[in-house]
């Protein structure tokens, strides 16, 4: 398997009448291989999906908007199988190489989009985020990324994972480009700034085997004049575990309702870890879903409370830099649960979240900080990303 095939499901020149004219003219676009483009196959990271589905006749409205704004489509990018992983490893097409730290995971499921942006092959990596699939690879590859408010951008003509949580997102090397794409895709009437001249922020301090907000995070925060003071909110391990399990249950139930019939009929070949998760999804019951919905209401009330008297929330995007390739599977299971404790809040409440690639460890591996906003604060978060970071990587 060539390195190019690990990143791109298709690569070539796509003719479009609006090429090189519009606000995104001159910017190269890669589209996660979940979005349909008329005349190009959609594999969703799995050969059995490709073989059992016809060639798309329609193009995703999201892709059409980007092309109409002048972006140049140069490829469809690889994804974890049906987008059901956060690792970025695909047993069928190979693992995209993390350009920043090749010894570490690239992150998924928008792995191809993230790696292509980080490597400089494209300028805009279009992807999706259900449980962290924009935020996690953005962190692992040192990129800016946004998971948009749930339902704000069309998911039509796109392979779903779990529709109640699926969102559209994108990755770039700089904050300005991230916001440019937002101007094309997000509703025009969204506010572009927060209502208060002096920003009011809260800081989530997740307690998982120690506080995940590190001294390095705090040093970055102290250098931000736009964030002179923040209200600390301590999240204990029990809350994070509840949020992770609640999200996994509701997502898993939605996944099986979406893909169970196809999996049962076609018996596709999945990676062992992904196969095990689909098998688990099949065991979830209506009673499990009902209990999880009750838990979700309680957790969402807590999340709503975080925003009392504040404009936005700061939090670590991931527990730290990307895990090393070949990490022990038992450790990875623990890490995935820990990671989803961080990513679950935005998913459960349908909120927008922007990753800022502002930190590196001693070996140069990237990680960073997230800005979490209320539903519809997408453009305000994008402008704040520019204000905090300028155009730097």
From TrEMBL:
InterPro entries: Amidase_CS, Amidase_dom, AS_sf. NCBIfam families: PRK08310.1 (NF006169). Pfam families: Amidase (PF01425). Residues 18-187, 267-382 form the Amidase domain. It comes from Cellvibrio mixtus. This is Amidase. It comes from the Bacteria.
